[in-house]
Amino acid sequence: MTQARQPTTAAGGTYRAATGLSWWDAHEVAARAPRALGAERVASAAATGRTLADPVRAVAAAPAFDTAAMDGYAVAGESPWRVVGRVLAGGPAVPDTLSPGTAVEIGTGAVVPPGTRAVIPYERSHHVDDLVTGAIEDRRNIRTAGEDLRPGDEIVPAGRVVTASVLGAIAQAGVDEVTVRRRPRVRLLVTGDEVITGGRPALGQVRDAVSPIAAAVIERAGGDLVDHRHVGDDPDLLHRHVEAAGVDLVVVSGSSSIGAADHLRTVLAVLGARWYVDGVACRPGHPQALAETSDGRWLVGLPGNPFAALVAALTVLEPAVAALAGRAPNPPLRLPVTGDATPYPHGARLVPVHLGGSHARVVPGARPGSLRAAATADALAVLAPDRVDGEPAEILPLP
Ligand SMILES: Nc1nc2c(c(=O)[nH]1)N[C@H]1C(S)=C(S)[C@@H](COP(=O)(O)OP(=O)(O)OC[C@H]3O[C@@H](n4cnc5c(N)ncnc54)[C@H](O)[C@@H]3O)O[C@H]1N2
Ligand code: MOO
């Protein structure tokens, strides 16, 4: 970690200007430093988006009984077969046992009667009066009980996020409850006396453009934004809300640099915070922070400039919330990136890109204070200082 000059802040602390960790190290630290929160049992229907703390094991076999895979006839013995009844999905199994030389008409998903040799689909059989004929192979078109799952089989490992596919799979296995990580509870504190939350900004004012980004990133990473407030530039108010109980992580927007109104460092010093990320060698978004207070609460500092805040939200906020939620870090997505971007000689340059098939193209015109270019982009690309046009770079999908 390179350290540049250390100017004294208006609050009297020191500030590690400009450099800090590399972008790649900061991203990795944020994904690995916070430990996953505790686990709880919840109804599987309420588990969407949560991370499994334990593997899910099948309660029931799947299929739970020998079942027909086609509509047609369940047949026993040799052709021809005399049709003696009909059995449909959800209906009673008729007859109890199929005798050689007989058949029942059967629907896909119905219980196959004992004694059945195979199910012959309508389109591969001939039916005249009550006699059916056709060629069969033993067990053809019968799904055998337990062929997909047996009770106790692991269906989904711990660490996976509960998606719709997971919910479907565990329902098939008769599971009604799962053990998942607690969702991280997050507080978002928006600083800046000039920041307003609605209407047209008057002279000296700006509309809050950081909250929508932070809220979306928190949600995407599996967190719950439970408290969201504007605290202006009042250091006591900031201190009170950083310190207040009831959350696992506090996000502070603005207040990350070294100006007179940037009180975050003072508050963190008072709270005895341990710093994990204190500035990142990237442009934009270098004044970002990740720290843990002495009572185990996490804090993320986002720069006030909105595009810089977006960069920081994807660099430290998203991985930190995901780590608290118990999610394993995503494998990096890398694509060749084409187009002009001014390299940042001391670290990473993050630029908005359009995604097109197997490559990404730089959206020109991004500035730290403006989200205009990002609003037309699909992702950010993380460009190394010695980047060559068309070579692969890490891609971060935009919220
Ligand atoms: N002497 C130095 N000054 C600054 C440095 C530096 O290294 N040395 N870094 C600059 C960079 S880069 C950034 S980014 C900003 C970060 O500053 P803060 O995080 O302390 O943010 P503020 O000073 O409060 O605001 C910066 C800018 O953003 C506007 N802002 C703030 N909050 C919001 C919001 N929620 N929505 C929209 N816009 C917001 C604010 O009005 C300012 O224009 O520091 C530079 N200075
Ligand atoms: O990094 Mo500031 O992060 O350029 O806008």
UniProtKB/TrEMBL annotation:
- Known cofactor(s): Mg(2+)
Q: Which top EC class is named for this enzyme in its record? A: transferase
Q: Which SUPFAM superfamilies match?
A: MoeA N-terminal region -like, Molybdenum cofactor biosynthesis proteins
InterPro entries recorded for this chain?
MoaB/Mog-like_dom_sf, MoaB/Mog_dom, MoeA-like, MoeA_C_domain_IV_sf, MoeA_linker/N, MoeA_linker/N_sf
Which superkingdom heads the taxonomic lineage of this protein's source? Bacteria
| Pathway(s) | Cofactor biosynthesis; molybdopterin biosynthesis
A biological process (GO) annotation for this entry?
Mo-molybdopterin cofactor biosynthetic process
The reaction(s) catalysed by this protein are: adenylyl-molybdopterin + molybdate = Mo-molybdopterin + AMP + H(+)
Q: Does the keyword Ribosomal protein apply?
A: no
A Gene Ontology molecular function term of the record: metal ion binding
Q: Which UniProt keywords apply?
A: Magnesium, Metal-binding, Molybdenum, Molybdenum cofactor biosynthesis, Transferase
Pfam families recorded: MoCF_biosynth, MoeA_N
Location of the MoaB/Mog domain: 187-323
Provide the function of this protein: Catalyzes the insertion of molybdate into adenylated molybdopterin with the concomitant release of AMP.
Family stated for the protein in its record: Belongs to the MoeA family.
Official protein name in the record: Molybdopterin molybdenumtransferase
Instruction: Provide the species name.
Output: Virgisporangium aurantiacum
